[in-house]
Amino acid sequence: MSAIFDLTGKVAIVTGCNTGLGAAMAIALAESGCNIVGVNRAAPADTLRRVEAAGRRFVDIRADLSSIEPIADIVHSAVEAFGRIDVLVNNAGIIRRGDALEFTEADWDAVVDLNLKSVFFLSQAVARQFVKQGGRGKIINIASMLSFQGGVRVASYTASKSGVQGLTRLLANEWAAHGVNVNAIAPGYMATNNTAPLRSDAQRNDEILGRLPAGRWGLPEDLAGPVVFLASAASDYVHGHTLAVDGGWLAR
Ligand code: NAD
Predict the structure, then answer these.
(1) In terms of Cα–Cα distance, which of 73, 68, 78, 173 is closest to 114?
(2) If you measure from the C-alpha of residue 214 to the centroid of ligand 1, how many angstroms do you get, rounded to a whole number?
(3) Where residue 63 falls among pLDDT bands split at 50, 70, 90?
(4) Mutate to test the pocket of ligand 1, among 25, 67, 194 (most ligand atoms within 8 A of CB)
(5) CB contact at 8 A, 71 and 125
(6) Which of 95, 144, 152, 171 could bridge across to 161 with cysteines, CB 3.0–4.6 Å?
(7) What percentage of the chain exceeds 90 in pLDDT?
């Protein structure tokens, strides 16, 4: 059974893996056998150490995905290092908060450019490489509860993450014929930098915990099983799905 989850020798690009959910997913993929191409703005020292401790290689690419300019180089560097790409995890993402009546163009563009535009163009560049390799490959986008729900004071984030769910379906439809699986993981309320302001607001923190069937914030490690599943042969017939890993939040 474990053979269908085995990723030995596979090559995974993970964006934003110096911290939080991306770090945990890169480490989980490495522990299942992947070499990792990490795309980060800041040094991913701890992730690199843990990937190497798992006996895998880590190629450290420094890039700012707020524009699509670095994308060609990212794919080129990955192929130069390993000769191929098997998995892409589009994890890098940001959030900006503000009332919709006051929301600025800068806060709109910053979020949509990184969370949606770069996700599409990096997926396109990697899928072209998959096709060049003869097909097959796995793309895993990181969605959100706000792919399903509206939220408040996060207009550009909700637009971007709802867009990620739609894009996941569209790309799955177009690329399934190439043996490429495009799916998404929608994390619930996870304890990372992204949610630090929510957790430090005692009232919001209590409201969230009170509504969560699991009764606790998610941990980055809670994404380990889902990301390995979606990167592996175990999910070969899963296309266009957004898998909530949310402690039951959406079931309420
Ligand atoms: P985080 O802030 O700890 O990590 C975000 C990552 O994105 C970091 O590695 C950061 O360096 C990278 N990043 C930011 N801007 C970048 C840029 N311009 N270029 C390249 N990399 C950039 O937060 P996280 O919670 O680990 O978030 C990871 C993903 O999970 C994001 O897409 C986020 O929207 C999503 N998410 C998080 C939660 C949660 O509860 N924490 C819930 C749902 C979805």
Answers:
(1) 68
(2) 23
(3) very high
(4) 194
(5) yes
(6) 144
(7) 98
Report whether residue 190 contacts ligand 1, using a CB cutoff of 6 Å: yes
How far, in Å, is the centroid of ligand 1 from the Cα of 145?
A: 14
Q: Is 189 a catalytic residue?
A: no
Q: Which residue puts its alpha carbon closest to atom 31 of ligand 1?
A: 93
Pocket flag, ligand 1, residue 93 (CB < 6 Å) = yes
Q: For the chain, how far is it from start to end, CA to CA, in angstroms?
A: 33
pLDDT band for position 1 (50/70/90)?
Answer: low
Q: Considering 157, 189, 217, 249, which one is annotated as catalytic?
A: 157
User: At 59, is the secondary structure helix, strand, or coil?
Assistant: strand
Tokens at 221, concatenated: 């490690």
Encode pLDDT of 203-230 as tens digits.
999 999 999 999 999 999 999 999 999 9
Q: Which amino acid is at 113?
A: D
Q: pLDDT of 91-134, one tens digit each?
A: 999 999 999 999 999 999 999 999 999 999 999 999 999 999 99
Q: What are phi and psi of 244, to 5 degrees?
A: -75, 130
CA of 132 to the centre of ligand 1 (A): 30
Domains, the chain, ordered by start: 2-245 (3.40.50.720)
Burial class (CB in 10 A: 0-12, 13-18, 19+), 133: middle
Is the pLDDT reported for residue 142 higher than 90? Answer: yes
